[in-house]
């Protein structure tokens, strides 16, 4: 997890040979980042709590509706269902990181590796499923109508997305561990540290942002242009939805990936030598990654709740629950206006 790594990392100099005379003024001064850790102890738990509550509620509704009530699904429905599952699994890791920001990692080395890997798997797969949704919407608008059912290619695509995300999480399983300060951070071998760390981050940026962004940009641009050219249809709402999806994706994901790219450049060329600049970079990664995480809370609104069909399913479920509750209440009411003997009933209603 990038923000945890940065908020707990200090600059240290490397001790070389112990004999001989040294000019200690050439060594890098230790950068104490206590302010960064104090900021993280306040900001991260508060933000993660809000994201956890909102995200769990929204994505749980999506999974429940698609899993139990909507029997006939399209390809977009399958992608949205997988997206909601990925978002839920990602959000379930947030309480661990919130506690870690305040008290340090208390769950041991294995859970450090597993939680870090889960975080990467679901973050990356979520971005990939957004790209899949954009491709399916592009085909639905620009191509001739096809069979609406879900076939093997759709499930194969989902499988490939999950496998790609799992493969990308292998470095988390290998390198993440708990250091002497009880922090869950990646520790790379000295001879591979710079190259491996930079390569992993660049790969995550490409697969988790650049590729999905390019796919979404091209697909939604062509889709919007096709909608504008179509005669005799109401275009304003679909275009607004497409524009909203793209803007939200850019606003939430672009700042985080720009900061991460700056980190990669710094890893390779060691550009940041000032302690204050290092602290600002750490705070920036905490804020931008938290904003990027909040996209998991917005996905149900952007991709599901705006749709008329899903609203109809929610209304059906609400009506079904409402009628069940009224029947339950009527069955448990005590008929005070009757003198006939009655069976004992509960005075509470569900």
Notable traits:
350 residues; 2 strands; mainly alpha; two-stranded antiparallel ribbon; G-protein coupled receptors family 1 profile domain-containing protein; single chain; cell membrane; Rhopdopsin 7-helix transmembrane proteins
- Could you list the spans in which at least 5 consecutive residues all have pLDDT below 50? 7-28, 331-350
**SSE run:** HHHHHHHEEHHHHH
Task: Work out the number of β strands.
Answer: 2
CATH superfamily: Rhodopsin 7-helix transmembrane proteins
Largest sheet data: 2 strands, antiparallel
Percent helix, as a range, is over 70%
Please give the CATH architecture: Up-down Bundle
Structural class: mainly alpha
The strand line-up of the biggest sheet is 1-2
Average pLDDT taken over every residue? 80
Question: So what's the overall shape?
Answer: globular
Number of domains: 1
Strand content: under 5%
What's the helix count? 12
Q: Tell me the span between the first and last alpha carbons.
A: 43 Å
- Say what oligomer this is: single chain
The level-1 CATH class: Mainly Alpha
Task: From the alpha carbons, calculate the radius of gyration and give it in angstroms.
Answer: 26 Å
Main location: membrane
Protein name: G-protein coupled receptors family 1 profile domain-containing protein
InterPro entries: ACKR4, CCR1-9-like, Chemokine_rcpt, GPCR_Rhodpsn, GPCR_Rhodpsn_7TM
Subcellular location: Cell membrane
